[in-house]
Amino acid sequence: MIIDHPLLGPRDAAEFVVLGDASLIDRPDGMTATVEEMHDYAYLRDNPAGDHRELWYHEQGDRSWLVVTRSTLTHEVIKVELARNVARAQGRSR
Amino acid sequence: MRYSALRILKEGLTGNRGWQPAWREPEPKPEYDIVIIGGGGHGLATAYYLAKEFGERNVAVLEKGWLGSGNIGRNTTIIRSNYLLEGNQPFYEFSLKLWEGLEQDFNYNAMVSQRGILNLCHSDPQRDAFVRRGNAMRLSGADAVILGPDEIRKMCPYLDHESARFPITGALWQPRGGTVRHDAVAWGYARGADRRGVDIVQNCEVTGFDIKDGRCLGVETTKGPIKAKKVAMCAAGSSSRVAALAGLRLPIESHVLQAFVSEGLKPVLPGVITFGAGHFYVSQSDKGGLVFGGDIDGYNTYAQRGNLPVVEDVCEGGMAIMPMIGRARLLRMWGGVMDMSMDGSPFIDRTHVEGLYLNAGWCYGGFKATPASGYCYAHLLASGQPHETARFFRLDRFRQGAMIDEKGVGAQPNLH
Amino acid sequence: MTQAMRIEGGMVDRERTLAFSWNGRWMTGYQGDTLASALLANGERLVGRSFKYHRPRGIFSSGSEEPSALVQLRDGAAQEPNTRATTVELFDGLYATSQNHRGPLAFDLMAVNDLLSPFLAAGFYYKTFMWPKAFWERVYEPLIRASAGLGRLSMQPDPDAYDHGFLHCDLLVIGAGPAGLSAALAASRSGLRVILVDEDFVPGGRLSAETHEVGGQAGADWVAEATAELAANGNVRLMTRTTAFGAFDHGIYGAIERRTDHLVDAEDRPRQVLWRIYTRRALLAAGATERSMAFGNNDRPGIMLAGAVRAYVNRFGVAPGRRVAVFTNNDDGLRTADDLSDKGIEITAVVDARQGDVVEDTIGRRGIRAIRLGDGRRIDADCLAVSGGWSPNVHLTCHHRGRPVWNAEVVGFVPGGELPPGMSVAGAANGTMTLAATIREGHGAGAEIAGDLGAGGSPGTPVEAVDESFAAAPFWHVTGLRNRAWVDLQNDVTTKDVRQSHQEGFRSVEHLKRYTTLGMATDQGRTANVLGLALMAEAAGKSIEETGTTIFRPPYTPVAIGAFGGRARGEHFRPHRLTPSHKWAEENGADFVEAGMWLRAQWFKKPGEKGWRDSVDREASQVRKSVGICDVTTLGKIDIQGRDAAEFLNRVYANAFLKLPVGKVRYGLMLREDGICYDDGTTARLSESHFVMTTTTANAVLVFRNLEFARQCLWPDLDVHLISTTDGWAQFAIAGPNSRALLAKVVDDLDLSNDAFPFMACAKCSVFGGTPARLFRISFSGELAYEIAVPARFGDSMIRALMKTGEEFDAVPYGTEALGVLRIEKGHVAGNEITGQTTARMLGLGSMLSSSKDAIGLRLSKRDAMNADDGMRLAGFRPVDRSVILTAGAHFLNPGDPADMAHDQGWMTSVAYSPELGISVGLGFLKRGTERMGETVRAYSPVRDQDVLVEVCSPHHVDPDGVRQRG
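Above: the input entities. Below: the structure tokens describing the complete assembly.
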């Protein structure tokens, strides 16, 4: 596979490590979250058959975490974003 | 029709014209006591044991493709009970015991071949972990032996004992481990279930659930609605998709595990051999092909196919541990979609929807589990109680913090 | 032996005679021959045996689709099983033998199976061998395995090397036949960078085998002209002997190039290269494969595909027979008769199924001698050329699980469903079965792709050719046969097997394949599958469209496992990481051990020491007595800087870090989000905004990854930056009562007194008069100890200088084994305890888990099952019988309890012989362990034949109060 890195251009997927669903960005605040909420965050997945937003880490490269939108049916990559930008857009900050 | 050498003789002498279909091709009835979603190994085994052991014969198995088209038809055929944890080991040992009597039980030769499984280790901590595991196996009645480098050299002189990057320091050997002719397992269970009245409906895809007031009353299918007192999901690889139809989110991701077979070669491998410093395991089939595999590709997929880096990684492992296979040719590769669960262990449980049950999350341990999975699921469906050996496979175990994490890698499915 | 069957013409070089050995007999052929053509030239017809019935097998095809002529090529370690004689280029000295027979090839004892064939029908083995139960492993299976398989492994390491390579292009053209060459010409002229691959050793595809004219000249001449132009264009890489075997994601193709297989001597060059080709577009122009028809005894040597017969005659100048009959269902087959007649070969019959004529049976045990027609006539023939039509080579179009569709006109499956993105198909692979049309389609595809990709040049015009007639009929098998008719020649699947499969309910194409093994042989059924499907369709009373087809998976043709493995084998399986003191350690008797990719010294053997225990005991004792030095560079080091660095650490460690003072080090416990202990280490605060974290060796990469995740994805606006400095600093532990005295001679101008530089202090400093360094007063051994880091380039000098300076204290280097002994004595946990399954409470570190902050894993660490009061707790263990050596991995049982899982009380994680105490000591997890000090339990290790009593004690076997490390 090829991941079109937003900063570096197309890179072989072998340079990356995949973590999983990009919902892992949405970590609840541990002081206010219930165990149930933290459980759902850590353990439950939509696991869609279709477009899937997922976290890839450019370990053999610039160490960016990316959010890759990719079809789990065809492997087509639809979008690649810097995870940091996605996180900020989702309201994460400090 | 009972199968035997005598029957083969008789049919052979009369032109093999008398063989009867191994199973019927029924249309679904409007209602069953139990409907099983998924005609793979586990679903067919569940139906078989429901009918045979628990007297439940008003049962249908709904299969969206051809029976046996699940991961029972796309695996590397290994059976073993070399697990560590209390939540797993007794279950897999139960499964191994069922394998040992399976062919006589369902009158079908699935070629259960207990030629052993050899897990190689390459460091002291790895060996310590194998000793702990071997002892756990012995505690639950399984067989386990720790071998030293000299014994391994005697058993497998063709491994790289000389120039290995990670020298072999020992191995965990389970003589009762081995391989089984995978498709035949599906066929044997299907035939056995069919003979006992179970309707196996092929080309019948479940498209929805009939759920009212928190109770499951049946399923919608491409062959029309079917009512059922109990509905049993058993569609590993597609569990999340099926469960989503009932509004459930599961602690599962779908990943592809590639596997490979070489051209046919004169048999030389004793049993299953696994490399402890890379991703490679191998056995040799009764046809002579080296059947081998490694790790999952790592990205979520339902595509039943993988990519080159993993093929290379697996073959690197093969060449590292067994450099004689360099000139054997890889004949065919395939990918099976795995239900990778959050702790690497499966689920056999009821769901919060009454009458709806789940059997899922087998990661790549599903094949060896087939008999016990079917038996324990049948037990749960018939009696309402989990089977003793499957009592830890609860869907809510993560809420309790009771993970069954053999590899100790946490809630990241692609690491299990 | 002279080449009795050699005839005029062809592309072989008659000036270059090559000698080769076949089953021990020396024969000759010519440069340009394949082993198959050379064998045929020498009149060899019987070359192998089938898999199940051991029927005689000859050469069936002229290409990679060959099901029958499989040989064991070369000898010794380089021998290669199951090699298709039809693809092996002849070289001088080639050595080949036949395979899969017992006794001589012509008198195979296993041929008895053929007599038993009524009892060996499809799936017979599923129905028997079940009783007596124990007989499967002991009797039946050994018998089956004794006759299984085809060729043999050498049982020796593959002597050859394989390379991996990467190529990039705009257009990959697969197949250099008329379509592929035309496409490459058009694309290249337009300005695209083109890679053109072909599995054959000459380009041209079927043009090499046929007598077609192209552009007014002989086909082969046009091919030469076209390849010359491609070479001149400068933007084309033509790769012969190269098979594109798989279409992977995003335009990545796998290709295998055979570099030296055709050479007498490879001269140490890599045997094959596995290419990963990255391309924007791909054009599949892989042609088509001819198939057979089913009639009685259609498997005898001498029965060949008609196209192969033409190839042997036209390309290789070999007559496959002197009296040849033709059996066809299409016009293509008729050309065979013409071509052969032109060469003066006698045609004894042309049997056209479309006219209602059929071959019903053949005669001749080890090779065909005659055919019997449907009307009962017997006609002599020593070769029968069969054409049952052509199947487009759609394989790569299926590699993303697209399903081909039936085309009644082509009488074959053509590409359908979703092709791999960027792939198009041209020529016979696309169902375009005639020459001029193929050329036009290839040219058009090349030009169109060039246009799509914005190439500006002119593609020119397609070369002129004439469309030959192509009219095929869906005739599959002869009816009313008395004798068996083969579908799959290698696996011995007959028409009866297919019908029986249907009769027994195995009716889907996948069931057919799996039950009968149709198409699962080394040729993957390339000449057989369609015939099998047609028979199944007929049995089911359905059309072929309704019956469907199985799809093809990579590889297109089998690929050597060694090629996938490449250079990563033996010592080079994975890289070595060497510590800065490695060279010094080598010079000083170190024995190394793998720690992940690292090599670490595990002990330093001194003269006179008999076993490793002598060395380790001495090293550990000397540390406790005086001072020892250990390279701990492999521990992960992460430099953490920024205004929010302390806040960041406070969120990734489970214990408090906000208030760590500058100049201090703290032990940190890191959890995974699921609350399980992940890693531990020390983190030093060098300034307000600068920390240095250490991780375990095993988790260095993973922890860094997780920290980056937290930094970029969870708290993207924290002002914190991370860099891995594991390889940047050489770090040495200096441990023992004399460590301070030693360091005092090393460190420049730093007060090392206990008041000025107490336990858990840290500082930037310099050593040996100005070399920058960092000093940490931390202890893994429990002794007064430090770790000192210098830039990695000074690591070698540092160890030498330290050892020199340490001479007066009898300083010893110590390795990982002594390190382990010391930490076990002290009761420090390591990888054997932090297994990824361990809670902080199990380790006795429950009180470290902060409840006043949010950090990774804290919330989920509070779940009930992880905090059960009767859970596992870390404890120490000593044998009741002090002479016993303990075993790691033993399980604990209460004395008197049965040895079963239900009574399992825990397990021993680490053991060591303690030189300090003179006994074997252990650490382990025991249910309620902390409450059971002084109890006696069984340490039960049946796999080690050990069952001993041990006393539960504190894990801190040495200096439990920590006086020494604070001293």
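Note for the figure: Chain B touches chain C through 122 residues (CB under 8 Å).
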